Structure formats: C-alpha cells, structure tokens
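Handout for the seminar on molecular recognition.
Each group receives one record of this type.
Step one: identify the two inputs.
Step two: read the structure output and locate the region that could contact hypoxanthine.
Step three: write two sentences on what you found, then compare them with the reference statements printed after the record.
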Amino acid sequence: MKAGFGERVIRAAAALPREFRPKTAVVLGSGLSGIVEGLGPASDWREIDFASIPEFPRPTVQGHKGLLFLSREAAVMAGRFHYYEGHPMDDIVLPVFVLREIGVETIVLTNAAGGVNLGYKPGDLVLIRDHINLMGTNPFIGPNPARPDGTAFGSPGHGSRFFDMTATYDAKSRAIAQRAAKETLGRELNEGVYAAFTGPSFETPAEVRMARALGADLVGMSTAPEAIAAGFLGMRVLGISCVTNMAAGVTGEPLSHAEVLAAGRGVEAELKSLVRALLDKL
Ligand code: HPA
C-alpha cells in the first residue's frame, strides 16, 4: 500500500453513521446490484452514495451503482472497484478495510464469473473454496498498512507483513451457505476455485485451459484483491460466483458483457433468497 493508506481508511470510516455495527457485509458484483431491493424493509436501511464517502473511488463499470447500504444486520455494497477500471489496488481494497473498521467480521464477496469446470452451466451459483491470483500483483505490495497511531488494522493478532491465507475462504461460512441453499433453493451448491485475471479482455481459450490445468473452476476479474485484504484483516470470507457464461473456448461462442449482465439478472432471484437467508445465519 501507499503511505497514508491508514489515514484514508480512518477518514472514510469516520464519515459513516455510527449507530450501525453490522457484523456481516455483502459485496455485489457485476449485474447483481438489483438484489439489494427486497433484502429487508427499506426503512431499516440507510443508503449512502459512494461519492459522499471521503476517499471512496467511484465505480465506472456498467451495472455497478456505487451505493453502500447499512443496517444493524448488514452492510451491502452495490458496486465495487476493479483493477481493469484503472483503480489502484489501494482503492480496490479500501472499502474492505473501512468495513472491518466499522465492525464487520464476515464478508460475502459475490461476482459474475466464467465457468471453467465443464460440469457447470450458466445460471449456476458456486461457492468459492479458494482462489488463484493471476493478476500479477498484490494489494499489499509497498508499506504495510497500519492506523495513523501505529496500531494494526483488523482482528487481534492480524495485520502483519506476511499473513496466512489458508482458511480465509472460511469452511464454516461455506457450510452455513450450503444449509441456506438447501433450505431456500432446495439444493446444495458446487464449490470451486476462482482464478482472478485482470481483464478487461475476457480470457483466451488457451488461458482458460491453463486455468483449468491449474485447478481453477471459475474465472473472473475481481474478488481476489478483496479476499486478500480480508485475509490480512482476519475477516472470514464467503465467496459466491454466479456463472454468467461458460469461459472462452468451452462452447466456441463469443463472450459479451451484455450476456454477463443478462445472466446476472437471471440469477438475481436465487442469489437474493440465498443472501437473505445467509444474513440471518452468518
Ligand atoms: N471471464 C472473466 N470474467 C468474467 C467472465 C469470464 O468469462 N464472465 C463474467 N465475468
């Protein structure tokens, strides 16, 4: 991170209302922001425009609104920042630090992803078991972030230079999600490994074959930086991918962002019931 990152986090967190202390946050990916409507009674939610939060960048991608919803139960980010938009990694992970700073302990990272595993189909929801970061960089390159008073960010015992990622994608949260899926959708979900590329080009068919050979089940352009930040902070991560398309080369059909958004809208109802059920259980 750049020097001064800690100050930026504190400035952003200080601008948020204090009466909410949600323990769970949900980040909504491309085309998935619609699920925020109906998560709970509107009166229970405070809607905050990213633009009104100091230090928060503004999303530029189609399908991302850039709103933070806060309630006592959860924080929901409708919109996130991607590396391919040109945001520095510091900006991509800043919201995760801010959420931890206001008390969040478990973060649900949703995304749209291409299906690499040939057993998947568009419209599937897949729980992320682990990731492979193929972005060629890491948000923690540079000075190790700390609060302006020198104390470490995150849960006690966390915030060190070399940090463990073994259990970041938390097995217990995944088990809770499987129970929620069974109750609300009537089935268990596949669990897979997410390979993160920078985008914005979709992968080539050869890159998709490489990802499969490396053990990936999904490809996407987000989530890994935020999960790494959550690992640093000692937060639990539950990753949920919406398979919006089979990855390049699988069907031979060309890929398009419009298709990704349309498929995202198609799984919105299922994702909404799953997230709704999860907020009560996580
Ligand atoms: N690749 C990368 N990111 C994606 C894809 C894909 O096929 N689909 C949705 N997001």
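Reference statements: The radius of gyration is 18 Å. The mean pLDDT is 92.
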